[in-house]
UniProtKB/TrEMBL annotation:
The active site is at residue 70. It is an enzyme of class 3 (hydrolase). One of its GO terms (biological process) is nucleotide metabolic process. Homodimer. This is dITP/XTP pyrophosphatase. CDD domains: HAM1. Its cofactor is Mg(2+). Keywords: Hydrolase, Magnesium, Metal-binding, Nucleotide metabolism, Nucleotide-binding. Mg(2+) binds at residues 41, 70. InterPro entries: dITP/XTP_pyrophosphatase, ITPase-like_fam, RdgB/HAM1. It comes from Desulfobaculum bizertense DSM 18034.
Length: 203
């Protein structure tokens, strides 16, 4: 079976990837299977650059095709912040709770109609021979004034899906995967997957 490794340590992403890939003929490994791989520094200024850094480092270290996701939240009233810094918004020692609290603080006094935002995801598969496949996805919504829901991760309790009007953390797993930036990017990536896999040199 084709083996790929997910170049992420985010448990929420790993869960969503696993749910969406369960019907594919892929043996999906994670970084837990390669404890020798340390922290990967995200020095890029774009989602694409960071996705390439993560995927290429893991592909070279494992000799397997690696898939990375670099994603984040862009808030219009904050000129696109936190963007590529979404995971590190409340640095040093960022947590999802602190990131959400900081986001609410920065948006204090901003009316709902001006709290527009989107999640973006760039997903990139990188082969040890240097070939790559890249796809992106975005998800439009608003930032609520109060958190709601227990599902998902990250900013999901504050992100309101523009279509259903529901907080992302209130969506079921299938509903989120159907709408989300990550779901869209992964479905695009998989469309071109057979062609990519056929071109890659497998050792
Ligand atoms: O509510 C959310 N629902 C989502 O669906 C989602 N997708 C991304 N994000 C935020 O953006 C950061 C990614 O940063 P990121 O791509 O560097 O990932 P990460 O550092 O968490 O893990 P890794 O993949 O780098 O190992 C995450 O931590 C989250 O804060 C999300 N928040
Ligand atoms: Mg990261």
């Amino acid at each position: 079976m084709n083996a790929v490794v997910l170049a992420t340590r985010n448990k929420g992403k790993i869960r969503e990837f696993s749910e969406m890939l369960q019907n594919f003929q892929l043996n999906v490994l994670g970084l837990d299977d390669f404890p020798e791989i340390g922290e990967i520094e995200e020095t890029g200024v774009t989602f694409e650059a960071n996705a390439r850094i993560k995927a290429s480092e893991v592909a070279k270290a494992t000799g397997l095709v690696a898939i990375a996701d670099d994603s984040g939240l862009e808030v219009d009233a904050l000129d696109g912040a936190p963007g590529v810094f979404s995971a590190r918004f409340s640095a040093p020692n960022p947590t999802d709770e602190k990131n959400n609290a900081l986001l609410l603080e920065k948006l204090q006094g901003v009316p709902y109609e001006k709290r527009t935002a989107r999640f973006r995801c760039v997903m990139l598969a990188y082969a040890p021979d240097g070939q790559e496949l890249c796809a992106d996805g975005s998800w439009e919504g608003h930032i609520a004034e109060q958190p709601e829901g227990d599902n998902g991760f990250g900013y999901d309790p504050l992100f309101v899906d523009s279509i259903s009007g529901k907080h992302s953390a209130c969506l079921s797993r299938d509903e989120k995967n159907a709408r989300s930036h990550r779901g869209k990017a992964l479905r695009k990536l998989l469309e071109d997957w057979p062609f990519f896999w056929g071109r890659v040199k497998h050792s």
